[in-house]
Specification:
The complex is a heterodimer. Helix content of chain A is 72%, strand content 0%. Chain A is built from 8 helices and no strands. The chains are: A mainly alpha, B mainly alpha.
């Protein structure tokens, strides 16, 4: 059981490192992706949340994306797009932060990553042993990345209200 | 006797006004709201509902103590729901109990760190307590909403 999980985690890590070419093979239009959606979403939480799945949902409807492996690539691509937004939001937050605040942010982000890993292992276990487990893990990571990015961006855009 | 009564009245009227918690029927508000809510958007609207009712009581919205108590009242309700959900899910998914416990433990560690980061924004002011309790309330609510959707979806969120 532990060996199987170790193999699963290694596989997950390997897929997370796939090149953008693997994503491009899904035939998505990246310009209509997460980042443009967030740019035009304004400060409303509901509008920001509508950007979740904006890349992976149409990707999963293509021929390539309708397979298990394809669906996983679709969600991994969406996860990377949200991950980039998190990185950018953290970089902006650190710019004017006091050392104490910057440290608190770094601590929180480190613990959030640990929780995300643990949470997505739990979610994926629903399909224990099946190939769907990898899709679920990728979907879970994309979903939690989106929630984290949206939380940062919502706070930024509503900071003065 | 009249003098004693007048003194007692004066003492009461000079005492600091204690924040008034919401009425009894509103203290069960989160559970009822979550049960009635269909879909994520409706569940999201439950966030803040009990605190808002409590803050409408005279004096609560104007004092730090009122803000803390009202938000804490709601946070406590979300926490009770969360604990009940975890107990139920553990019972229904015995093959995932260890992983659920690990995920929940990691979430608690993150929640504390995240709320410490939010507190850092308050920079030591009297608002720090308010920020802390609002953060606890909101993150716990998000977790309850996720588990509610998981339970309604037969055990999986995705």
């Amino acid at each position: 059981m532990r060996g199987m999980w170790a193999a699963f985690v290694v596989a997950l890590a390997a897929f997370a490192c796939l090149t953008p070419n693997a994503h491009a093979q899904q035939g998505e239009t990246r310009d209509a992706g997460v980042a443009p959606c967030i740019r035009s979403a304004g400060a409303s939480l509901a509008q920001l949340q509508k950007c979740k799945g904006v890349e992976a949902d149409p990707c999963s409807e293509t021929d390539a994306g309708s397979t298990t492996a394809g669906a996983m690539l679709c969600w991994q691509a969406e996860g990377r797009a949200w991950g980039a937004l998190i990185d950018q939001a953290i970089a902006r937050a650190r710019q004017d932060a006091t050392p104490a605040r910057a440290q608190a942010l770094a601590d929180s982000q480190e613990r959030w990553l640990a929780w995300r890993q643990s949470e997505c292992q739990y979610q994926a276990l629903y399909y224990e042993g099946g190939s769907l487990a990898r899709v679920i893990a990728a979907h879970c990571i994309a979903d939690l990345n989106a929630d984290r990015a949206i939380a940062f961006i919502y706070a930024e855009r509503n900071a003065d209200q | 006797m009249r003098i004693l009564f007048a003194l007692a009245l004066a003492a009461v009227s000079c005492a600091p006004v204690a924040p008034q918690l919401a009425r009894a029927e509103e203290t069960t508000g989160i559970s009822a709201c979550v049960t009635a809510a269909q879909g994520r958007a409706a569940l999201e609207r439950c966030k803040g509902s009990v605190a808002a009712a409590c803050l409408r009581e005279p004096g609560n919205a104007d004092s730090t103590m009122g803000l803390v108590l009202c938000n804490d009242q709601e946070a406590t309700e979300w926490q009770a729901l969360l604990e009940a959900q975890i107990a139920r899910i553990s019972q229904h998914q015995p093959n995932r109990v260890e992983e659920l416990a690990a995920a929940q433990a990691a979430w608690v560690v993150w929640r504390d760190a995240e709320c410490a980061f939010h507190r850092a924004d308050a920079e030591g002011g009297s608002g720090e307590q308010v920020v802390q309790v609002e953060c606890d309330r909101d993150l716990t609510a998000d977790r309850v909403i996720a588990f509610t959707l998981l339970e309604r979806n037969g055990g999986s969120l995705y």
